[in-house]
């Protein structure tokens, strides 16, 4: 009986995930469809894609963070997440906070935001916190 109460409390408190996780990529989705475990779970799984898009041309640096969110809940939701871009040595090159608001149940939202990064090569994006709230 105590295990059921604890499980209910854990699920009812929500998923304010404060751990740093790598962002989902197309490769991670591919692996999950082949039967491997897909990370992350819970609300964080609504962030289907979060990656860098290098739009640089003719020597002009133009790197954007792009994302896709799908609301898997049954309520209209607002999303916010913090992220960091780190190089291979672990040095933080950039960080930011993104928002996606009023996403209807089952709806997919796409967004983009410019960064100050000078290159996307060898740069990894990590989500350092993620939150979904009913709006």
Give a concise summary.
This protein has 135 residues and is mostly beta strands. It is 15% helix and 43% strand.
Beta fraction: 35-45%
Please compute the radius of gyration using only Cα atoms.
Answer: 17 Å
Q: What is the N-to-C succession of helices and strands?
A: HEHEEEEEE
Shape: elongated
Tell me what the structure shows.
It is a single chain. With 135 residues, the chain is mainly β. It contains 2 helices and 7 strands, in the order αβαββββββ. The strands form 2 sheets. A 4-stranded antiparallel sheet has the order 1-7-4-5, with no helix packed on it. The protein has a 3-stranded antiparallel sheet with strand order 2-3-6, with no helix packed on it. It starts with a helix and ends with a strand. The relative contact order is 0.24.
Features:
single chain, elongated, 7 strands, disordered N terminus, mainly beta, 2 helices, four-stranded antiparallel beta sheet, 135 residues, three-stranded antiparallel beta sheet
Task: Give the arrangement of secondary structure elements.
Layout: H1 2-13, E1 21-22, H2 26-33, E2 47-54, E3 63-70, E4 77-86, E5 92-103, E6 108-114, E7 124-134
Antiparallel strand pairs: 1-7, 2-3, 3-6, 4-5, 4-7
